[in-house]
Design a protein that fits this description.
The chain has about 150 residues and is mainly β. The chain has helices at about 5-15, 60-65; strands at about 20-25, 30-35, 40-45, 50-55, 65-70, 75, 80-85, 100, 105-115, 115-120, 125-130, 140, 145-150. The protein folds into two domains: about 5-55, no CATH class; about 65-150, OB fold (Dihydrolipoamide Acetyltransferase, E2P). Helix content is about 15%, strand content about 40%. The strands form three sheets. It has a five-stranded antiparallel beta sheet with strand order 5-6-13-11-8. Strand 9 and strand 10 (about 115-120) form a beta hairpin. The longest helix has 13 residues, at about 5-15.
Length: about 150
Amino acid sequence: MDFRQIKNLMKEFEDSKIHKLEINDKDFSIKLEKQEHSNTFSVSSPFVPVNSFAETNSAKEKEQEKYIENNHNTVVKSPLVGTYYQASSPDSEPFVKLNKTVHKGDVLFIVEAMKVMNEITSPVSGTIVKINVKDGTMVEFDQAVLEIVE
């Protein structure tokens, strides 16, 4: 497991209601545990030294970090690692298409992670001007998926 995967796992853990998680593999183990007011994470492995991380961003700051302004376009990023789906099923129409108008709160796409379908909604009203990911492909945390012009 590389550092990026550990960071993504930590984010998912932080956003969940789980208070303790421990994963043990052949050459790797990780233990995540939430405390009352702060989150403490530790990672240990024969190959990786023990590290501690403290998360300080508020929920509002994290929500704002999901979207960035790019030449007056709002870039919608994947909030987690998983598989990108443009529709709710293979037989359904895509949630969005290029040059389609969307409203704030409309479902834009789905990211499947650990067999959970996560609907990603539009942060703004506008028109879809760019889709950067193909249906059924893997997306990384914080990867730019599509752009909306307001």
